[in-house]
Amino acid sequence: MYIKFWRLRNYPLYPMDWPVVGMLPSLVANLHNFHDELTVVLATNGCNFKARGPVASGMRFFVTAEPANVRHIFTSNHANYPKGEDFAEIFDIFSGTIFTIDGEAGRQHRAMFQNILSNPRLLALMASCCRDKVVNGLLPFLTRMGSTRTTFDMQDLITRLVFDLTATPIFGVDPGCLSISMPSIHVATAMDTFMEVGLFRHTMPACFWKVMRRLNIGPERKLAMAETVMHAFIREMTEKSKARCADLLDDVLAMDIISANPSVGRDDVLLRNVLIVHMIAGRDTVGTTLPWVFYNLARNPRVVSCIRKELAPIASLKATALASNSISSVVVFDPKETEHLVYLQAALLESLRLYPPGPIERKVVLADDVLPSGHQLCSGETILISIYAMGRMESLWGKDCHVYRPERWLSEDGAKLRYVPSNKFMAFNTGPRMCLGKDIAIAQMKTIVAAVVWNFDMEVLEGQSIEPKLSCILQLKNGLMMMVKQRE
């Protein structure tokens, strides 16, 4: 009788709100398709709705995809909406780092890393590392796959590439995940586990997963094993870094962190956590985004043609130099050469709109407040901002919001990028917590995508299931099987 009454009253606007257990069963039932289900619910409820968990769980949620609310939460009144203690507990592996701390301590950490990441020497090192990996790792691998028409997992390939790209500037040591032998990457798997168990903790009452952690069972046991693997990797890489020459130690991010904040260097646990956060931040943005980019490009040859047209003037100059020196015809583009290519960047932004690497942001309400949408929030409520849903709202992006169309990012003459406020496009966050590595990430993705698109035709294998993994980041659940063919 209750179910019948609920359906007559609410369907199809809200998930099932059961007595005692709240919306938890509805959440669990739709977890396999969580982001798309959430998008539908938000679209049919004006971009906002409230939800609750089981009685006595303390789980009270306000879910939004409205830019005006986002601006208020992240910018206008951001001090009232920290990540909160629950978030810090969920991601205790990152304890004491910029990822979990708020307030003045968070601002100090952010200022420190902003200064480090603007260091021209470090930026040059990152750019050099990216080019080296593309030339000596990525392109040779794709050439081998193309010559034999062998299928491969693009997500695994990108994971290896970006893992090396991230670790090398941090430690000054190349892990060699993209070497010819293609070694097992248990550390990358451990990093994935952090995000998968993070989502589990988000969706369960805290008492549930804390009991599992104490008993060392289920996902919590898997997380403990992943922590052991990650800590061993950090220890090994740090020792290798210390074993290098003293003058070379000045050229790695780990040393910059210690010199910028000596207290971090004196605390082994905090330094380890900071290095883990940098590994996660560097790897997950680019490593999660690029497989979706190549998926979209392979399914949209018109977009590939437009990118090649933009690259052609640069490539023709390089081709002349290559021919005169009898060098291989494979073309690699430097970051300075791709910096001003607007269509290439539009293609990346469009993929980020549809498949943001971090699909959800979480905040907590400190003091009672009223949002621009008119919704009243009470102290202690949790706010979930669906970045995935925001990218698919017809009210924000038009009737073709589900279509991959880079032109939406360009001016009418196609000569420059349109301005899109960050509270509408949150792939790199917004407000005081805007991603510090945004420009670095875009430069790396441009370098990688330009090299692949210019030198190879791509094809997605038919019949595979393309869906997101259950994780705090939007990875592909089953990988991305592709084939390539080298262009003449």
UniProtKB/TrEMBL annotation:
Gene3D superfamilies: Cytochrome P450. The keyword Nuclease does not apply. Its cofactor is heme. Keywords: Heme, Iron, Metal-binding, Monooxygenase, Oxidoreductase. CDD domains: CYP86A (cd11064). It holds the Pfam family p450. GO terms for biological process: lipid metabolic process. Heme binds at C435. It comes from the Eukaryota. GO terms for molecular function: heme binding; iron ion binding; monooxygenase activity; oxidoreductase activity, acting on paired donors, with incorporation or reduction of molecular oxygen. Belongs to the cytochrome P450 family. This is Cytochrome P450. It comes from Setaria italica.
